[in-house]
Structures are given as C-alpha cells and as structure tokens.
Write a structure and sequence with these properties.
The chain is α/β, with parallel strands linked by helices. It has helices at residues 17-21, 29-34, 39-53, 65-80, 112-121, 138-147, 167-170, 219-234, 280-287, 328-340, 357-365, 448-456, 468-475, 498-509, 547-558, 562-565, 572-588, and strands at 3-7, 88-90, 93-97, 130-134, 152-155, 202-206, 246-250, 265-269, 273-276, 315-321, 346-351, 369-372, 404-408, 412-414, 428-431, 437-444, 480-481, 488-489, 517-519. It is built from 17 helices and 19 strands. Strands 2-5-4-6-7-9-8 form a 7-stranded mixed β-sheet, with helices on both faces. The radius of gyration is 30 Å and the shape is elongated.
Length: 628
Amino acid sequence: MQSMKMEIPRRGEALSAADARCRSPASTPGEEKNNGLRGREGDEILRSSSMSKRHSACKSRPLWYVLAIIIVFGCVGSLLISPAGISGELPLSLTLRRSVDPRYISNLEVDWLSTAKIIRESGGLKNNLRVGLMNFNHGEINVWRNLLPGSEFVGIELNPVSAKIRWEDLYPEWIDEDEEFEVPKCPSLPEPAAVPGAPLDLIAVKLPCDRSGPWTRDVARLHLQLAAAKLATWAASSLEALQGPLVLFLTDCFPIPNLFKCRDLVARDGGSLWLYRPALRPLRESLNLPVGSCTLSLPLSATAEEARPRSAQREAYATILHSAPQYVCGAIVAAQSIRMSGSTRDLVILVDETISEEHRAGLASAGWQVRTIQRIRNPKAEKDAYNEWNYSKFRLWQLTDYDKVIFVDADLLVLRNIDALFGIPEITATGNNATLFNSGLMVVEPSNCTFDLLMAHVEEFESYNGGDQGYLNEIFTWWHRLPRKMNFLKHFWAGDEEERKQAKIRLFGADPPLLFVLHYLGLKPWFCFRDYDCNWNVGLLREFASDVAHQRWWRVHDAMPGHLQSFCLLRSKQKAGLEWDRRQAQKANFSDEHWRRPIADPRLNICREKFCFWESMLWHWGEPNSTR
C-alpha cells in the first residue's frame, strides 16, 4: 500500500507560513481556567486540542485565495483521516495511508484534559517518555506532542486485517477436532511492526466502537487489542519482567476483559479512558492461545502426562445452586466424581436461602465448602420463570480467594482428571452453537471488578437464550475452545446416522473412560428410576436418552456412602410424574418399548414425606389445576 510522508516540526521549531495559517487561536482566559492544567503546558494542550477540532479557523488574504483552499483542505483532511496504522518515528515524520480502512475508524471525541490527568496521576506524565501510538490521526498526534512535551513518539505500523475475514471465521460453529478430513487452522492477523530502540513506556490505542452493530464481535477492534498486547510483551525490559508498559485505550466500549484484565486496570476516567499496567506472564499465556475458537486451546490427544494434575495452587472447582434444591443430589454426585478422578482441589458451592440446612449439611459432607450468596435476578426474565435468578452465576467472579476456578454444572460427571485446565486462561470452554461457548464447564478468573463489569451491562446486552450463558457470551466474546471430550453433551442429533449414534454410545460407556466430562441434558438421572433413562418416555426429550450414560451416572452414585445416597431419593410427586410419562409413552407406542420395563429401583417404595400415596396424584394429573 502506498503511503505519503508529512513532516511534523519538532517542538520549538518555527512553523512554516502554511502551518501558521492552520493554527487555531490561543485559549481564552475562561478556557484556561477550566482545563485543569496550569501555565504554558495547559495552554499548549488546549490549543492543540482546539486545532484538532476546528481547522476552519485557517484564514488567508484574497491574493492567497487558491493557496488557502489547499491549506484548509490539507489541514482538515489530516484530521479526518484515521488510519488503520501509523508508522515512522515521531515527531520527525508520520506516515499516513492513502486508503483508510473504515473498520478501524473511531469517531470518539477525545477528552485530552482527562487523558493528561489519568497519565499524570499514574506517574506517567513526565519528560523523556517513549510513547507508541496506534490508530490516531495527524491532528491527534500533534495534541499528543503537546500533552507529553519532551517525549519521543513512535508510530506503530499495523496492516489491516483482510476484509474477507469475518468473526465467524475466527469462531466457527464446528471444527474437525479429530482431524479426520483436515487440520483446523485459524486465519492470520497481521502483527504490529517491531519497534526498534529502547522499550516503550506507554502504548496508546484509539479503538473503534460502533454501537449500531455487534461491537463486541468486531474483527478490527480485536486486532488492535491483540496488537497492543503483543507490543506490551515486546516492550518489556526483559523476559523476567513482571510488568510491561502502561497501555491506554481510548474508546467508549470496554476492552476485552479477559485479555486486559480488571486487576491490571490502573485508572479509568469516565467511560472512554482505560489505563492498564498488564502483568506480563498471564498476558503472554493469553497470546499463546489461538486467536479464536478456530483451533483447540488444549490438544485433543491430551496424554496422561499433558493432563497430569498440577501442584496445589489457589484453585478450586465451583458450582452453584439457587432456587433449585432438587439439584442437591446432582451436586453431591458431581463432587464424588471429581474426587474419583484424583483431584484434591477445593470444592466450593454457592447456595442461596432456598437451600435448606439439611441439604447444606449433605453438600458439606460430600466435600463442598458451602458459601451463602444473595441471588441475582435476571432483569429481563419473567417472574417465576426458569431463568429468573440464573444471573446468580456471576457470583463466581467474587471467589477472589482463588486465582482460577473451574465452574462445573451440577448435572455433569468428571470421568478423568481435568486439573490441567487450571493452567489455561479465562474464558476457556467447549463450543455450543454458532460462535458461542457452553457455560456448563468453563475456566474463570475471579475478580471483583469483572463482577462489577458483568453487573453494569445487564440492561445493555440481550441474552440469546434468556439466561446466563447467552449473557456471558456477549461479554466474553474472545474465548478459547476446549475439546468436546472436556464437556461432552449427552445428546443425539436428529440427523445423526446410526453409526455416529453407536460411536457416541461407546464413548459414554468406555472403560477406562475416553471422555473427560459427561454432561447430562434433558431429565437428569436422579429424576428417573435407575432402571432406564426416563427421557425415552417423553417425546420432546428422546434425543437426550441413553441407558449407557444413565448407568454410568448411577455407578458413581453407588460409590457414595449411604447417607449421601439418601439425598437422591424420589419425592412422591416425582414418582407420579414418571408413571404419567410412562403411560403417555405407552399410548404413543414408542418403538423402543422402555415403557414396558418393570421398575426394580428400591427408591420406588421408599418415602420420606408425610404423603406417600403418589398413585392418587394420577387421578387428576394433566388437568389445569393438577399438582404437576
């Protein structure tokens, strides 16, 4: 791409006649009073800021009319051009691209006085700084010169991403994990040019933020932030350095929260200035991951050595129970499966006031550290709906006594040790559909300010499924793919061929296990009689039915002490519901004929309630006012 060079005079040099005509008037006394800066420095910053906003102040005499038009258009043009990248050392020269990629343009009106303030209060407003600038136009560069007098400025050269690359290319719905037909690859994003000379002290980036579209899934915006992260790691004084340079984002939209982390946020001013001092080790770990979910973040062929248990850290498994005491049994069995996998990490369960003391005692006996939370209402859910309180999952980010947490739903089994996931950055999960991840198992990094971020935008973002999974996918759009075997869904697609169904069944029953985690969808095993998977008897749920997977869950259940098994007893209402579904399956004459099988589950005849005559419930079952 061709470029043109525009000479920028050094601070203190005489301006040319043309430059003089393009200077805006000095600030008025009132302006100087309000700018928050004093003396010559504040006057020059404000003067440059004014120049960047109103070059219409350029004037000329009649004899120079033609020349004046050229000067005016040149000045205004230099301000309107917001290049995808700038290169060359400043203030000696600046390279602007002739053709501007509109995806990189930011229309943010920069608050320069607040910019000066945030840098000064961080200790960065001093002489002799080396500053890297990315995605600023010519007029803004001049303001930077006056903002940090005596500093050296370096324009960061960054070629734009190919216009053919879409977010769906970085986050495909499916990849060939088994490499049966192809080896998955990610598109290549141009890297910033290496900056010669001394390390940078400050990297400033102006990010686009187009709220008219899905700005959290903006390829150009992601590209600029990845480039800034790489520059920060390159600018470190040594590989052993713990912290890199300051990174300042100027944008109306929050930066990627799991790349530039809340704990590294030095200062924030208003809604458009975000100043970070990133810790280099986790930043490098994040950059070592794929650019998207287009390849796996953990090798599929994870051997015992690759997936070996890590040494004890501030790490824990966590789950949550809110408004659903019927999931206590699932959480107890999940804890049993984690311990059977060989993990000795802490187990933390968050519960709300709906979980009784008896149930809490059972959870504690199973190994969970029980912590009480105040549940969080989904503001867009209807009253008493299934998703009314599922934003309570955000409380995971308040587990700040841990550096890493693996969240596990209460309806899954851990079949093989997955402690290795503690070594992978947030957010890491398996794919769900489209560009989205499944939040049933995910690696998170607790942080109070991340929790605050989640709470601050609940009114802004729409969840595609009305629940926490959809919302988290709007905040953490930059996530990394785990192999399906790390969170394998018990589900058969309608279009699955018989060979594929049998392959899944073999995975469910393999011993020693091939799957790391098996996730039970549909009716849960403890809601059924142990004789067979009761999803077979419900037309809409038959796609989740597997007797092999069902029996696998019960083997883990049977390995528990008897007093813990008692938390998985069926209530009378549940027994009645199972019989009703069986009768409906019989009427429909489902060909698998599970409805014919006799029930030998001893729980059928065990009752811990005052009312045990569950058969009487069937007299009016299915009627509008029935107990179901």
